[in-house]
Amino acid sequence: MSLEISQGTPVEISEERALSEGRRQMVLNMGPQHPSTHGVLRVILTMEGETIVECDPVLGYLHRGVEKLGETHRYSQFVPWTDRTDYVAAPSNNLGYILAVEKLCGIEAPERATYWRMIMGELARLASHLVWLGTHALDIGALSMSLYCFRERELILDIFEKQCGARLTTNMMEMGGFSRPMPDELPGMVRDFCKEFLEKQKEYEALLSSNPIWLSRTRGVGVIEPEAAISYSLTGACLRGSGINYDVRKATPYLYYDRVDFEVPLGTRGDVYDRYLVRMEEMRQSVRIIEQCLDQMPADGPLSLTESPYVIPPHDTVMTTAEDMQRHFIWVIKGFSPPKGEVYQAIEHSKGELGYYVVSDGTPIPYRVRLRTPDFVNLQSLPYMAQGAALADVVALIGTIDIVLGSVDR
Amino acid sequence: MSEEQLTGGPGDTPARRVWDTGYWGPTEPENHPAIVAVREQFPDAYVDAVNFRDEMTLRVERPALREVVQYLRDERSLRYNFLSDLTAVDMLRLRDNPRFDVVVQLYSIPNRQRLRVKSGFNDGDPVPSMVPLFEGANWLEREAYDMFGIVFEGHPDLRRMLLPDDWDEGHPLRKDYPLRGYREYVQPGYESPAPRVSSRFRRP
After folding, report:
1. Is residue A301 less than 8 Å (CB to CB) from chain B?
2. Sequential DSSP letters for B121-176
3. Contact residues on chain B for A357, CB-CB shorter than 8 A
């Protein structure tokens, strides 16, 4: 686009051009400071009256070069960076990267740690969906939803804080398990939360699902055809809202997702309302998974591997045995060297398929770390959905894709 | 390092690994249906196939990349109809020629199988674009162009994706690009500009 567009006010008309027969087009700049773009997304809209003719998202306002940083840090040092990509569901990002590196090394965490990872991943999904629901409803006009959603999200953040000391950027997982022991009261806290959350979710649905304003803003808006959803490589609720059954947890189960019973909700019309229903049902299924994990999880056992050369030795043996002290020293100073090779590990993030492609050249620093973030790929469908829509719908469309700009720009 | 050490001791090998990709096909490239079919259909383009951690990587010649991916997508028995990811790797420190690899991660929704297709090329070689096959390749290829300077032949709108449109310092994910860039940047609140990190691979 050759237009000079100033970046002053959030929405402004920068150019008007006349077409034939009295019609005229105008170019409208939305963002990067617009409150409903969920961060620093900028969209350049070419409008004809109230109808969108062309939509061009401009990204990169939050680009920090995470992939380049991955090539300069040791394997374990990159884990905190994964928190900062999608910061509303940080444990899921940890999980994807850790699973990729564990696969590269050929190790796996003990059973108890794996169940606990599943629980943390599902809690992260709930936290992310609650942010999505609150902000999406806030954009469309239901202000009170965001207050309720953030109230429940606090409980999840309290659980994260109990486990690892941080609420947002958790840095919770480590090669071979968890970096810290699990506090004894934590499974009880998770159980209480699950019970409470199901009650609260009924209130959300009573507020929104048959609300006439909500229905008129979401029904039939932003329809994605199933073929287009596959062609645009959409994943997550954007794909399943169009009726395509692809959930990484079911399709290629990682962790112990083949041991728990849950269902994958599918939409039929592929509009904003269907994606809302899919995500609401996903939250209910997440609670089901968490409760099953709590039942199946061994009551006692290690939360981290101890013997593997790829794992930092436990603190008490470092202090008492010479071998572990040496191993600890080498692990901290030099890091560990996985075998040469490349792996692609995909997990079902709250927004879709989160893939980590890690290439190792046999040194303690990864040769290449690639983050296939779901919202970057999903955001591509915005011009497709916005074609012919009204300006007010763009807000609903950005909300339904469920983007976090830290994850889009990386 | 023995397999025992890798898995954390003897008697500790469960039936299915936690990080398993759910791959249940043959692990030898000679028996993999997609590899066999591609070898039959494109005998000139096929280079090799490697299995690592139950992930199959197929390497083909660059000019035939799009035909191979199209065949994998449209063949009734394979149907790799979903483009998971498209990216590139700069192999500068690992080999001399060709310098880059373009990596296409394919997934088959009906068959629930993954396949990685790679193709090597040198700086300046045009790589066939995947946009005619998958709309989703559009931004992924723009990002690869932005980060590596790869020219995708047949891409409708090859612009920078994440960096500014007027960025004139090259392509940052290349291995010869210093971590903090070529230029010295003024730091707000500091007297001296940000120091440059020395790199073994400087721009000539």
Report:
1. no
2. E-TT--EE-STTT-TTHHHHHHHHHHHH-PPEET-S----SSS-TT--S--TTSTT
3. 85, 87, 103, 105
Contact B162 A68 (CB under 8 A): no
Residue A3 burial by CB count (10 A; 0-12/13-18/19+): exposed, middle or buried? exposed
**Which residue segments constitute the domains of chain B, with CATH numbers given?**
3-153 (3.30.460.80), 174-204 (no CATH)
CATH 1.10.645.10 is right for the domain spanning A87-381: yes
List of chain B residues whose C-beta atoms are within 8 Å of the C-beta of residue A231: 134-136
Picking from B22, B57, B81, the nearest residue to A252 by CB comes out as: B22
Asked if residues B64 and B45 have their Cβ atoms less than 8 Å apart, the reply is yes
**Residue of B18, B87, B93, B108 to mutate, interface with A, max A Cβ within 10 Å:** B18
The candidate with the shortest Cα–Cα distance to B137, out of B119, B124, B152, B122, is: B152
Q: Which residues of A173-212 are buried (b: 16+ CB within 10 A; e: fewer)?
A: bbbbbbbeeeeeeebeebeebbeebeeebeebeeebeebe
Decide if A305 touches B, using CB distance below 8 A: yes
Q: What ipTM score was computed for the predicted complex, to two decimals?
A: 0.85
Are residues A357 and B103, on separate chains, in Cβ contact within 8 Å?
yes
Amino acid at site A187: P
| Distance of alpha carbon B158 from alpha carbon B151, whole angstroms | 8
Per-residue pLDDT of chain A (410 residues; tens, 9 = 90+): 434 444 444 555 666 666 666 677 888 888 787 777 777 888 888 888 888 988 889 988 889 889 998 888 889 889 999 999 988 989 999 999 999 999 998 888 888 999 999 999 999 999 999 999 999 998 888 888 889 999 999 999 999 999 888 888 888 888 888 888 888 889 999 999 999 999 999 988 888 888 888 888 888 888 999 999 999 999 999 999 998 889 998 888 888 888 889 999 998 888 899 999 999 999 999 999 999 999 999 888 888 888 888 888 888 888 898 888 888 888 888 888 899 989 999 999 999 999 999 999 888 899 999 999 999 999 999 999 998 888 888 888 998 988 888 899 88
* Residue among A354, A278, A240, A290 at smallest CA distance from A121: A290
Other beta carbons within 10 angstroms of residue B31's beta carbon come to 10
In contact, B144 and B126? CB cutoff 8 Å: no
Contact residues, chain B, for A372 at CB < 8 Å: 84-85, 87, 105
Q: Which tokens hold the place of A314?
A: 């436990």
Q: How far is A201 from chain B (nearest CA, A)?
A: 32
Neighbours of A80 (CB within 10 A): 15
Choose among B84, B134, B177: nearest Cβ to A346: B84
Sheet strand arrangement including A51-58? A11-18, A24-30, A42-48, A51-58
